[in-house]
């Protein structure tokens, strides 16, 4: 198994990144490839899940180890494949997903692409109680989104990066128009924060 890949991030594509190490370019599929934008042409370490089937071998990459671990857990759920697992990880944080599982919130879970009531119920049956280590600490449940001081230019650049990531997930310019306005009114945060908030807005619309 390939646990991680460390090397030069040479390319960012709509659904993947390419990391070059020792003369080999590893094609790594990602939920939100543009989350790695800051590492373009720099060294990066990406946690990977080596997906092996008789007719297919693929590498899936994650910025955080817990994302990789949740991906592996989702693959154990009947009805959830790699594409569906990536779509979930690209739409929500690990803590938010685990909270929905523990609260048996089927309505929330069916918002994810390809997840109907039957699959949502299966996820709850298979995963409830197994992911609680990732539940947020109530005493420290304050998001970084409202804590970072950045310039107006930096904020605009980060929002545009986030919108590019959302566009890569298939959302149209029309859908993103309202999101752009709301993100501009939000307080400063990182690109990942804007992507997550943008996805939450789109899922509610």
Written description of the protein model:
There is one protein chain. The chain is of the alpha+beta class and 205 residues long. It has 3 domains: 4-62, Nucleic acid-binding proteins (OB fold (Dihydrolipoamide Acetyltransferase, E2P)); 65-139, DNA polymerase, domain 1, CATH 1.10.150; 144-204. The protein contains 8 helices and 5 strands. It has a 5-stranded mixed β-barrel with strand order 1-2-3-5-4. Strand 2 and strand 3 form a beta hairpin. Helix 6 (152-168) crosses helix 8 (191-204) and helix 7 packs across helix 8 (191-204).
| CATH topology group of the largest domain | DNA polymerase, domain 1
Overall geometric form: globular
Number of domains: 3
Mean pLDDT: 84
Any low-confidence stretches, pLDDT <50, length ≥5? Answer: 138-148
Q: From the alpha-carbon coordinates, what is the Rg to the nearest angstrom? A: 17 Å
User: Which CATH class of the largest domain applies here?
Assistant: Mainly Alpha
Q: Number of DSSP helices?
A: 8
Encode the helix/strand succession as letters. EEEEEHHHHHHHH
Question: What's this, in brief?
Answer:
This protein is of the alpha+beta class and 205 residues long. It has helices at residues 65-75, 82-89, 94-102, 106-109, 117-127, 152-168, 173-185, 191-204; strands spanning 4-12, 16-21, 24-29, 43-53, 56-62.
């Amino acid at each position: 198994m390939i646990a991680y890949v460390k090397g030069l991030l040479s390319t960012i594509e709509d659904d993947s990144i390419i990391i070059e190490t020792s003369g080999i370019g590893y094609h790594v599929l990602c939920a939100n490839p543009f989350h790695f934008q800051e590492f373009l042409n720099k060294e990066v370490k990406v946690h990977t899940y080596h997906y092996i089937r008789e007719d297919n071998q693929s590498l899936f990459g994650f910025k955080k180890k817990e994302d990789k671990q949740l991906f592996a857990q989702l693959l154990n759920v009947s009805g959830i494949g790699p594409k569906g697992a990536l779509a979930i990880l690209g739409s929500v944080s690990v803590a938010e997903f685990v909270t929905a599982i523990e609260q048996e919130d089927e309505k929330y879970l069916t918002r994810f692409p390809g997840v109907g009531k039957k699959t949502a119920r299966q996820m709850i049956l298979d995963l409830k109680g197994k992911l609680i280590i990732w539940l947020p600490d109530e005493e420290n449940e304050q998001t970084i989104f409202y804590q970072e001081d950045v310039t107006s230019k930096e904020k605009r650049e980060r929002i545009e990066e986030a919108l590019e990531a959302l566009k890569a997930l298939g959302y149209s310019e029309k859908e993103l128009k309202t999101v752009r306005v709301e993100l501009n009114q939000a307080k400063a945060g990182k690109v990942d924060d804007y992507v997550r908030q943008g996805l939450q807005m789109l899922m509610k619309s």
